[in-house]
């Protein structure tokens, strides 16, 4: 039963990376779009693309926390006590990001729109970095067993955590660019499609470089996980690399639909590889999934709750994304009057 719950937890991490990660990645492109005039069109597409779904994507994060807390409470306690600094920063970043995104659509002056836009973009980078750093700290065995607190600084500011944090930011930016290529084509804007296609290619190359550097850091700082990546997780590692290369080739050729699927599989492969590499440990070399698991009755009740959740919430998510893809959802916020106000 504990293995099944752990598999559901890994699937939830994949879904959050694929959906929520792309949300955060759009903030990176918002930050690097340029000034008010040059970046107006890319930012408009970003707002249009993530507006209907950005709140829904955080459901996966809440699900991850609740599932870990209920099924693996001892490990959850150790992670929270050790990683409270990056997790607090990430929580504040999520709040600031959401508020800034909402307020930017309602303010009338260009000055305040820039302030809220900068807060939205910077938070979009800070949050995935902190979450990636937490994953790196766990993988490198810096979270102790027994519900105890580890080093609050070096647990997430170390070579492995820094590499995984940067990789999380780059992968989020990569996914967002690939999605935005599709959205630009759906909107009939060939120039913007090419604009984000070039950025998706650049992000893919950077992701490959950071991944290579990350493997070196993992080899030195997380030997158990590195051994797992070259053995039990080798198949998803290879599939992730092949999907990434395939997506890169399709992006060069301008095939957005195929590239989007392969990009999703490549990023999902990274998350699955990490989970399998540290198996059977939840906290590598200190706490296994079985040791950290709640009593069987709790796991059984949790499994039933997850099934009910999938039946009730799953169709609503599918409907939301289908309506969004078909451009059937209303625009959020008010009409953008910042340009007119700035001109006056």
From TrEMBL:
Belongs to the cytochrome ubiquinol oxidase subunit 2 family. Pfam families: Cyt_bd_oxida_II (PF02322). It comes from Microlunatus ginsengisoli. This is Cytochrome d ubiquinol oxidase subunit II. The keyword Transmembrane helix applies. Keywords: Cell membrane, Membrane, Transmembrane, Transmembrane helix. The chain crosses the membrane at residues 75-95, 115-139, 159-182, 203-227, 233-252, 259-279, 299-323. Its main location: membrane. InterPro entries: Cyt-d_oxidase_su2. PANTHER family: CYTOCHROME BD2 SUBUNIT II. It is found in: Cell membrane. It is a multi-pass membrane protein.
